[in-house]
Structure formats: C-alpha cells, structure tokens
C-alpha cells in the first residue's frame, strides 16, 4: 500500500541573522531523533531561511520614493513597505485597495512581493530569501553528506490564490525533486488515451507540509515528508512552475513590457 | 511528535452511473483492510463522484448555442463543451485563446467550468458533481455509522493556478472539517502579536492527497489522511473558501452584474 508520512520537527530554535540554515535543520533533526531515509523531502518555511540570510529589514531605514507613495495611497499599504516591494520586483502587475500584485524578481507573481510582518520583530519586515533554489540546494547537499542518502529540499511559503479566501502553502525553492511533474508521452488515462497533464508537484508538497506548520503561533517551520514516490532530479528550478508568457502578456497589456 | 499519514487506497473499481459513492468507498476500504480512526479524513477524487452521479455527458447530445459558438471561436474549444460550460456557470469571466474562465454555478471560479475529458469514455465529458458538499456529507454519515467514529470527507479536483504552469489538487466539497481555518483572536505570532491569517485548509488537504492520486494513469481516487489535528465542524461549506465580493467586482467591471 502506498503510504506517505509527514512529520513536524519540534523545537526548531528562533533563527538569527548569519545562522546556517543547514546547521539549524541538522540540529533540529538530531534533537528530534529523526534520521533521513532515501528520497525523504525536507520542507522548510521560507521565513527561517529569510532570517538566517539576514533578509529582515528595519522599516526605519527605508525612504519611500514618489512612486511608492503613489501606490501606497491607492493600496492603503505602508509606503516604506511599498518601496521594498518595488525594489524586490521586476514589475507591479496590479494595484487595488488592499492589494498590490507584483512580479517578483525571482520570476513569479505574488502579492506584496512576499514581504511579511509576521514572526519578525516589531518595526521590521521579512523579504523572501535571496535565491531559494540555491538555499534549498545548499541544505540538500549538507543533509546528503550527513545522512548518506539522496534527499530533497523544498522551501515553502504562504500565498494567496485569486478569488479564494485565505492562503495556501506553495513552493518557493526546490532541490532534488521536480517542481513540475510533467505527464510524459507514455502517460495515459484509464481509457488509455494520452494525457499531457502537468502537476504542480512542489506546490502540492508545500501545501501538505503547511498543514502541519499550521497557524502562525504554531511556529513549526520544518516538516519531513517520507515515502513519496518521485523521480530524483538535479535540474529542478522553481521557475519551472511559472508561466512567464502569461505574465509577459499581462504586462504588455498594461504597456509595461 | 506531530505526524500525519496519507494512505492511497488501491483497487477502487471503475465507477458506473447510479453507483453509491459511499458503498464504493466502504468496499475499497474494507478490501484494503483499512479501518477509519477518530478524525481521519477521506479524500475522494471528484471524478468518481461525478461518474456515480451520472454527470458524464455524451457530446453528441449537445447542440451549441450562438453564444457558445462565439466563445468557441475565440478560445478554440469544442463548441459543444462551451455550451456545457455556459449551462454549468453563473457567468463567463474571461475568454482568451486556449482558456475560458468561468464562475461555476457552485460559486467558485474555475477554467472550463470543471468540464473534463480525462478518464471518461471517448466522446463524453464529465461535469462537476451536482452538489459536492452534499455528496461529501452523505459519504461521511455512512462512514461514521459504519466505523462508529467521527470522520471527515473532502472531495478534491485538479485546478490551475493563474501564472503557474500546471494543476494542483484543491477542494471541491467538504464535510466535517473546516474548509477555511480562521486565525481567531487568540491566535498570535511568535512575537505575541495578533494575526488574522486564514488558511485554505481543505485546499491543503486536497493538495496533499493529490500527491498520491498522482498522474491520470495512476487511477487512485481515494486517500485517507490520518493524524491531522483540526476542529471538527458540522457547518463547513466549500463556499467558505470563496471571495464572492472579488468575483462580483470583476463581473461588475465587465458590466455582467
């Protein structure tokens, strides 16, 4: 019987700037007496990666530009946070009361460029990690060295879905596991017809892990997924999940490209 | 340690019209020697619910209207399928080459009104279940009676996410488990600040189960989620996940409301 287990790793310490994410993950796994098996996937909340990489910014250091003030007026957002959104983005896709939709410099669309006030000190905000794929790959290599097995790492975050009333865990960075699982030409439906379905595999892994990470107070930033079947890959990148052409066409419609 | 397990139930038979979904689920669980425990969640692929409810339509019986032909010309979709989309929807939100975005009669936004050619006989398509919450509730009551414990049921389906390159399992119907998990006023972040985060809980459960349901050929429409902590509710509805105001405002922008 095909069974997958999700294990929340307890007691991950509060992360400080310049901590090594790999060391933190390793220590937490050891303290929890969890050793990784072949093809286990470690899912890490992006917040602790951001913190370790010093991506927590004090708002008092930010001077908003005229453009940031304009967008802040329409959206009702703090102009300093809007200034950071602009710096973190390739483009601003939509501004409405209460929402700024951005094309993040990493290539995907998200609200507020992923900038977040939760679980950081008052007066500061966290930015997304500098390069989540690279951060995931670093942790992966450390874990593979330590445990002597092939494992994967996914970095997840909470994102909104258009027309839906809350947030869901989606993938932000991947290493060792496909971001997108493509139906290949051998893939057929139960009536033996060819199908070309692509599954947002890393997003589904991220959503699953988010179930255990839970609400903000839970403070569980680390979940191990065991038993999931997938093709090991060295080539996976988070941008495999992104339809750039759709983003470009929407930007072109606004005269931004 | 907080642990959740996902079990794919094998050998679910091909479902025929007028089968009882509850009986099918029960038989599959018994054949797999799986008995449900308190707060287990049974996730069912919407496709088998549609089939059991006779929601598989032969395209030869459909005559497209003028409006359906118009939308078919722009989108490149089969005019008969577009006719069904119109019948299944409150409104058509966007039409572009390759995509028709609909407001489904059940209240949420999805492409092609959830109409799908996969895993049904050639020349037919499946529509979404008539009332997925009700279908979920029926199965739930049967399972609770049979196993003598409180369990929940989620019906899931594959949906696209805007700007993302594939599909993800999201919730279509719920019974016994919150669709949306609201951060209540006691909920605080790790710095003890109040947070009002709402989590698309049934969507995360659906995505997790979809990992095991896998590609179309896998044909695993039934997954049991064990060990997940959640508040039991009798009041959950799939529309808890939907931001109707956002849909209404987008429709109003098009002069459709």
Automatic annotation (TrEMBL), chains A, B:
SUPFAM superfamilies: CofE-like. Residues 12-227 form the Coenzyme F420:L-glutamate ligase-like domain. The keyword Metal-binding applies. One of its GO terms (molecular function) is coenzyme F420-0:L-glutamate ligase activity. Keywords: GTP-binding, Ligase, Magnesium, Manganese, Metal-binding, Nucleotide-binding, Potassium. This is Coenzyme F420-0:L-glutamate ligase. It comes from Candidatus Andersenbacteria bacterium RIFCSPHIGHO2_12_FULL_45_11.
């Amino acid at each position: 019987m095909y069974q997958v287990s999700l294990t929340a790793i307890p007691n991950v310490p509060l992360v400080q700037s310049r901590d090594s994410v790999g060391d933190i993950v390793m220590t937490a796994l050891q303290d929890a007496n969890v050793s990784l098996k072949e093809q286990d996937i470690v899912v890490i909340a992006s917040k602790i990666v951001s913190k370790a990489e010093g991506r927590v910014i004090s708002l008092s250091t930010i001077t908003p530009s005229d453009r940031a003030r304009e967008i802040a007026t329409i959206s009702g957002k703090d102009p300093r946070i809007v200034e950071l959104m602009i710096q973190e983005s390739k483009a601003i896709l939509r501004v409405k009361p209460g929402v700024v939709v951005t094309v993040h410099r990493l290539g995907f669309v998200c609200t507020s460029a992923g900038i977040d006030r939760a679980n950081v000190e008052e007066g500061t905000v966290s930015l997304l990690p500098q390069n989540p794929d690279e951060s995931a790959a670093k942790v992966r290599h450390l874990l593979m060295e330590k445990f002597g097995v092939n494992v994967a790492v996914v970095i997840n975050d909470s994102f909104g879905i258009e027309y839906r009333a809350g947030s869901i865990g989606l993938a932000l960075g991947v290493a060792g596991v496909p971001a997108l699982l493509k139906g290949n030409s051998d893939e057929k439906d139960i009536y033996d017809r060819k199908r070309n379905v692509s599954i947002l595999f890393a997003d589904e892994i991220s959503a699953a892990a988010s179930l255990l990470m839970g609400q903000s107070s839970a403070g569980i930033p680390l979940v191990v997924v065991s038993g999931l079947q997938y093709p090991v890959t060295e080539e996976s990148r988070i941008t495999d999940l992104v339809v750039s052409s759709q983003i470009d066409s929407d930007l072109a419609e606004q005269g931004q490209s």
